[in-house]
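Hey, resending since the last one bounced:
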Amino acid sequence: MTTTPPPADEETPWRRLHPRMLLVHPLHEFVRALPVLVATLVVGVSTGNGGLWSLVASAGAVLLGPLRWYTTQYRITPKQVQLRRGLLQRQVTAVPRERVRSIDVTAHLLHRMLGLARVEIGTGSNERGAEGRLKLDALRAADADRVRAELFRTDMDGPRARELAAFQPVWLRYAPLNVGGPVLLGLLAALLNEVHLEPWDSAPAHALADQLRGTHPWTGVLEAVLVAVVCTTTASTLFYAVMFGNFRLSRLPDGALQTAHGLLTTRTVTVEERRIRGVEIGETLPVRALGGARCVAITTGLRPGRGGGTLLVPSAPVAEVRRLAGEALGDPGPVECALTPHPRRALRRRIVRAVTVGVAVAALFAAAVRWSSLPVWPWPAVAAVLPVAVLVAFDAYRALGHAQVGPYLVGRSGVLVRRRWALSRQGVVGLRLRRSFFQRRAGLVTFIATTAAGRRRYTLPDLDSAEAVRIAREVTPGLLAPFLTPAAAATGGAGDEARPHASSARSGTRSAGEG
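The structure tokens again:
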């Protein structure tokens, strides 16, 4: 009688979450179940059993903690990451280790007090939803580091990580210009409204409203602007400091980039460099005015904006941001190179749109003054719309540019948020050449490179048609050939004949190998 040895995966033991998670889970479940508790309280009051219903609901939320700890197990085998959970309905999730895109270790304040951390394993599958991430909440902080080292095959006793950048106090000058402050103020206003504390119903607020309705409203406008600036500056600075305090960017010896940041809630994200397909440098208009920018990595299976999951550096001096972007690529060329400007016809299109907007706003204001009770005093602001729009049009044109540096396609565009991106040709999986009616008349085309990384689509707006075809032929040789006229294919994409096929021009959109 012979016995067959079990597969290697079956020899790996299952592990449990740390028992101290039983102290964290009830609080989290109570917060998540708060709407349900309020509903049960309302139902209970109507039936005369409000206290009993609330007690039963709270006890249910607390008892879910031990049940979750008992039924949740995980293990890391040589080929898979497996998560097993559920009591009545048993669920086992298995992910191949080569599908692991990132390791996100987060420790809220209560986690840190108990020496715990939450580990999220990003797999790149449906990254916008929970299906794309395996969550282990919670492990000991040392066990979380061990899981990260095990998945990325890092020797914990080997060479230490090399620090590329650390938070500098000078970065705080960009904090008031971020959107976190207004968002925080909005949440605070909603909270005050829920508890029936309404600062806008106070005596100073009523006095300010009277000034705005009086014969000299500009004094009230200046006061309102001053109050808004002070409040948003304070809130934005506080938000930035809490989110990105203690920021560090490091390169691990196993070929991975790791970011860590946060004062109250610490977050550490590790991404393999072989998953990085490029970088994107973003400059909002106010931050750009102070010479700042931020940078994210264009990573396979991860989208920018998911809690900063691909963040390389927050708002910081643009020279420092470019240096770190070059470090991430291993080549500063795509970040520092000069860009080829787009045709002057692109500027003409933007000026026409700006003039149209300015005239439309002036006409609407005149109609509102004529047919309603709208006061006349805002007319200077309305008159300023046209010159401001024209200036924005010139700035939008100055932002346009593209280049090809080694294996990277580089592009830049945008006004309120100017983005410069460098995308590896290896990451391009498809192309789109899109032409609107007005673009066809101007001989321009919008070039779109599709990829499985980052934003999924990276755009070069208002390119010359021949230039767009030339770039397409160099980025993905042979991919666009079925969609070109025979003359364009014979000339190699040069001259006036190198344009998309007529059927593509009529439809406005034609994809080639898009995936």
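Residues 218 and 372 are 21 Å apart (CA to CA).

Sorry for the duplicate.
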